[in-house]
């Protein structure tokens, strides 16, 4: 996918007179990658095995394989759990969230701030869950 400044693209969409023409012109800038393909690319890039990521993410094997096979779409929380399973950076996690159509991690949101901290410090899922539990916030095991 080619990159185009998001704000510039937003302004072009708002100002367009003909959506069909605009859509045709900007098709290559829109996210259309299937999540299963993105996860497969991450497996290759990070040199991981599905089962290792699934277990590190605290996701049941059946559900995890359904995400990787494209049979199910992970919730935002499960996508973050997968990012932790992959040991992604905060930036890579936000990219995974964007590819799934979810909001990026937002540092002013309590739950997200704790997750950002945990990811930044290479915490395991259980360690981040402890921080969330201590803050009386939903944990990954609750989602």
- Low-confidence stretches are none
Rg of Cα set: 17 Å
The percentage helix is 55-70%
Q: How does the overall form come out from the CA principal axes?
A: globular
Strand residue percentage: under 5%
What distance separates the N and C termini? 32 Å
Count up the helices.
9
In round numbers, the mean pLDDT is 90
Report the sheet with the most strands, covering strand number, pairing sense and barrel closure: none
Structural class: mainly alpha
What does this 3D model show about the protein?
With 143 residues, this protein is mostly helical. Helix content is 62%, strand content 0%. It has nine helices and no strands. It has helices spanning 6-15, 19-26, 35-46, 50-56, 61-69, 76-86, 90-99, 110-120, 125-134. Helix 4 packs across helix 6 (76-86), helix 6 crosses helix 7 and helix 8 (110-120) packs antiparallel against helix 9. The longest helix is centred in the first third of the chain and has 12 residues, at 35-46. It starts with 5 loop residues before the first helix and ends in a 9-residue tail after the last helix. The relative contact order is 0.10. The mean pLDDT is 90.
């Amino acid at each position: 996918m080619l990159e185009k400044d998001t704000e510039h693209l937003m302004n072009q969409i708002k100002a367009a007179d003909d959506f069909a023409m605009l859509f045709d012109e900007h098709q290559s800038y829109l996210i259309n990658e299937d999540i299963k393909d993105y996860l497969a690319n991450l497996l290759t890039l990070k040199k991981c095995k599905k089962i290792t990521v699934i277990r590190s993410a605290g996701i049941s094997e059946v559900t995890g394989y359904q995400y990787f096979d494209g049979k199910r779409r992970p919730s935002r929380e499960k996508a973050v759990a997968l990012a932790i399973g992959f040991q992604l950076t905060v930036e890579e996690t936000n990219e995974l969230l964007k590819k799934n159509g979810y909001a990026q991690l937002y540092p002013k949101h309590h739950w997200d701030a704790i997750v950002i901290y945990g990811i930044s410090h290479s915490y395991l899922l259980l360690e981040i869950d402890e921080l969330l539990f201590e803050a009386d916030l939903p944990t990954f095991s609750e989602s």
